[in-house]
Amino acid sequence: MFSRVSSLVSTLCLLNTLLPSPAAAVWPAPQKITKGEGVLFLNQNIEVTYNGAFVCWSSSSIPSSEPQPHVYPDHRSSLSDEEEEEMLTENLAYQQIPYTYGYTPSGFKSKEIVQAGVSRALTGIFNSKFVPWILHKPGTKYEPDLSELEWLQTLEIIQTAEDEPSAFKPLAGEVDESYNLTVSESGNVKLTAVSSIGVLRGLETFTQLFYQHSSGTFWYTPYAPVSIQDSPKFPHRGILLDTARHFFPVEDILRTIDAMSWSKLNRLHVHVTDSQSWPLVIPSMPELSEKGAHHPSETYSPGDIEKIQKYGAYRGVEVYFEIDMPGHIGSVSLSHPELIVAYNEQPYHWWCAQPPCGAFKLNNTAVDEFLEKLFDDFFPRIEPYAAYFHTGGDELNKNDSMLDEGIRSNSSEVLQPLLQKFIDTQHRRVREAGLTPVVWEEIPLEWNVTLGEEVVVQAWLGGETVKKLTSKGHKVIDSNYNFWYLDCGRGQWITWENGLPFKTGYPFNDWCGPTKSWGLIYSHDPTANLTEEEAKLVLGGEVAVWSETIDPMNLDTIVWPRASVAGEVLWSGRIDENTGQNRSQIEAFPRLTEFRERLVKRGAASALTNTEGGYLFYPLVRDFKFPVGAHTFFNASMGLVETALEHVSLKSVLVLGPALLLANLAWWLIVRPAWQELKLARMAGARPPKIPSRLPFSIDFVYKSVKASMNYQNLPMWKSLFVNANAATVENRIAGRCVVMTCDPENIKAILATQFSDYGKGEPFHREWKAFLGDSIFTTDGDLWHGSRQLIRPQFIKDRVSDLHVFEKHMQTLFRAIANGGALNGESQRVDLEAGNGKPVDISDLFFRFTLDSATDFLLGKDVKSLSNPRQEFAEAFGEVQRVQSIISRAGPLNVFMPRGSFRKSMKIINAFINQYIEQTLRLDPNDLASKTDAGYTFLHALAGFTRDRQVLRDQLIAVLLAGRDTTACTLSWTIYELARHPDALKKLREEILRVVGPTRAPTYEDLKGMKYLQNVMNETLRLYPVVPFNVRLALKDTTLPRGGGPDGTLPVKVLKDTPIAYSTLVMQRREELYPPVSANFAPVDVYSPDRWFVWQPKPWQYIPFNGGPRICIGQQFALTEMAYVLTRLFQKYERLDNYMEEIDGGNPTLRAEIVLQPGDGVKVAFWEAKKA
Ligand code: HEM
């Protein structure tokens, strides 16, 4: 106990010494800063020069309560303000550059921009009255003594280059914003920058070094000497402000721009119109705002727009506009209804993400003419102050075009070319106006629209989208909604009627909650997981202020200080270059709290940095101090945890345990599902029919499924779900989790092929199967899976799979085992082959042994001899592991409670067996390995030629063993099951075999491929008994399935990330409606009829026993060759089968569907040899 307490104490002592001074000032953090503890006072007649010329100041607006030493003589007081300003600028421009409080430049002259910057900086210091008591313990003496004052002497500003014209409306990266700032002990300040915008950034930093003395008449910095070198990490650092859902008067926007410049943010993206309103006055089309604005007073005139843009440009904040299209444009319908579809359509979620919907008609020349007129009016007015124009493009709902008389389709194939044309035309206009287009990510990613090289894409959906975009070469602005949407977590914006709607909506969360706290915002790195090349394409980011729940009343508290937090990530970088670590909240928090005070004092009504009332951070500073990095904080926390553990009693466990369990249950069963429902409501697409449930959490469904599974009734159970819903895709919520089930070929195609990257095996599957199959081809997605596939695929080339020797050896043992009526008792057991004629045998058991022996031989060069040992340790262990694994995967989260003793024991046996071969192989000299191509060359040798990693070798071997063994054994078993009860088919098969190969010769690969009836037999077996009858894929992102939603099942189905899509090839391949009508030569769907394959070919994706798409079975040719070989060899020898299954299952095969689909009662038959001539 003592040692723990003492370690905690010593940690805290260490932290104390690492503590930065509590008011470490500057936000965002400069790239490099050193500072001392000297105090220097600032007075209002500090000598300010700009490139050698003086910057002087007027006293007119200095509050009289403040000291006014050495005030520049105001000898022009008889002049008007304008005249005075003109004189100041005109007359003194060449010697002195005056500054006055509130000075506004009259144009984009560098001198004036700097002059205005100096005026604002000094206003920020002298007028904001920031006495920092809040940053210090009560009763401490934190203020400097006023008895001896050291004064700052000069502020020397040097701009080292002339401003390019683009400096005031730059494309990302066109203006150099870097600066160096030094404050010497003797009181000289030097600010050097390449551009006037760099000077502005440096002046903001300068402001933040100062506090007001509580005497009210002195201003000081306690940090002298100071040295700062600073430049931004990202060139685009912005806020998106939505002025369509709620309107913001010009003064609110100007105030926002001011606070942006204090935070070194440099882009204001005004999402100026949307379906909710059109506040933008377009003089050539006045009807747009007259009819589309919320109210005539809630509009932006051309003068307003110019004022906002200029105001921003003077502060280094570029204001650019977005007119979102072709969706999110419903408000145009109020003045031009003929251009818009789906405005105000109900229920809205079929047509858009948010009422009142509305999209441009995509195939309509009137829309094009409208946009030409609109752009001709708007672009020339905004182009002088902006480099960009945003054409939107988010959340376009395909269904809208179903209502468009010129299209009447929601098919991507139809819509994509129209959208491409639309974007091409509008972007050409944007370019011609001298602007650069910006679009939302859906345009290139969801719609595959090809964009011009210069077009910037704004990402918002999170996950991998920034990576996807940059890997395709797009320039990106990141606004990941999971981190940087400031409106999230404020509750739902639609209202709910009492009763069922109320219950459905409860507790009325919005789609993207929780609130993005400053800590969460600070944690986001827009370039995380990108390569260096990809990261270069990230121009920066924007926090978004969508205004459903925001208006001028709460604007400031929503935006500040959180936008400044993203501002620091974008200016300073998420990673602190000095430490190479992520910047820590602990270090950031006091600086942010201080900056928040400055925001408030300078006029932005910022929220608190914490929400617990008062300045909670202050006692934390006193008690714990602030460590420099998260690492030391972690040590401290662990110490606290240890201390807490010492106080844990049985009682607290008893109380806490159930409470945690309840909280967990509430989360999984109630809160998460409700949140998901809200999210789904906002997504594009429709829902499929729901499986009705009488009991909560679909307990009745779970019971039915488990019962069906235990009784091998999965097929009728699944069928009934689709039949009852009259649909091929249905949905259910099982224990709070949404699951989609489908037997629709279109949807299966999407999961496996056309939307391959949207779906995968998923991490839970990987986790559950890891102990058995490791990181092998079966359990992984993405790069890991791809690597495995690359490794394994070459081993299945034709040369390898056409080598039939490996099967022949085991065939001879199989014949002996058949004659024996079961597995042999040792290799040397004598068997009377003649006496075995007509002896009943479970051929299924023998097939499992045969395929295990052949597979181990093929893979390792050594078979396990299970055909000649009734009890075989490896085979039993392999069987046991599969049994337990199958239960683990079905048990879902409850699998943690499963005993795993037999599983572990069996895994040991399997690993020991496989590892001995791996060791033997790795002992071979790599050169020998490379030259080894003789008969002893195995799959393992080939793999070891590529990797010597034992774990990789082990994982892949076991995966292929599992894939190759049971699958072929099951298919062979079902084939014999059916041939035994279809003697005609057997007769035809045998005739073909004898015709092509004769009674004794071993068949060649070409013989096997050339036997059409044999191929039909195998195809027909795999049609009725696909080996993987039920399968599942997890949605790896929010996405859709192409079909199954809406009242008639034709709309795309919306699918949330992490939703499992269960699909059944077994059900699909037995759907009558996918087949031609029954006729004389086309048997009913459930009947085994190899002959049907002479007259019929299944349509693509309606027959997929080997799966399809990029993950199609690698061993398909190997399996078909092996099975054809076995069947040929068998029926060269045997001419007929006695069927014993009728008495066992009454002719109704037991479909045992665990991992693979196998005959649940075995396959009891007797083989009869042909009479020898
Ligand atoms: C009748 C025999 C077979 C059938 C019906 C069959 C069917 C399938 C199916 C449906 C899958 C997809 C599983 C999924 O992704 O969920 C698959 C994958 C695979 N199969 Fe087969 N298989 C057979 C035989 C074999 C054999 C003999 C081998 C190798 C010796 C093999 C190797 C593989 C491998 C490696 C994969 C994983 C492919 C990937 O994920 O990229 N299969 N097989």
TrEMBL record:
Q: Which GO terms describe its molecular function?
A: beta-N-acetylhexosaminidase activity; heme binding; iron ion binding; monooxygenase activity; oxidoreductase activity, acting on paired donors, with incorporation or reduction of molecular oxygen
Segments forming domain Beta-hexosaminidase eukaryotic type N-terminal:
26-209
Keyword check for Kinase: no
InterPro entries to which the protein is assigned, alphabetical: Beta_hexosaminidase_sua/sub (IPR025705), Cyt_P450 (IPR001128), Cyt_P450_CS (IPR017972), Cyt_P450_E_CYP52_fungi (IPR047146), Cyt_P450_sf (IPR036396), GH (IPR017853), Glyco_hydro_20_cat (IPR015883), Hex-like_dom2 (IPR029018)
Reaction it catalyzes: Hydrolysis of terminal non-reducing N-acetyl-D-hexosamine residues in N-acetyl-beta-D-hexosaminides
Question: What are the record keywords, sorted?
Answer: Glycoprotein, Glycosidase, Hydrolase, Iron, Metal-binding, Monooxygenase, Oxidoreductase, Signal
Needs which cofactor? heme
- Signal peptide limits: 1-25
- A Gene Ontology biological process term: carbohydrate metabolic process
Q: Which residues form the Glycoside hydrolase family 20 catalytic domain?
A: 234-573
Residue ranges that the Swiss-Prot or TrEMBL entry lists as coiled coil? none
Residues of the active site are E395 (proton donor)
Please give the Pfam families that the UniProt record associates with this protein: Glyco_hydro_20, Glycohydro_20b2, p450
Q: What EC number is given for this enzyme?
A: 3.2.1.52
Which of the seven top EC classes does this enzyme belong to?
hydrolase
Q: Give the family per the record.
A: Belongs to the glycosyl hydrolase 20 family. Belongs to the cytochrome P450 family.
What is the protein name for this chain? Answer: beta-N-acetylhexosaminidase
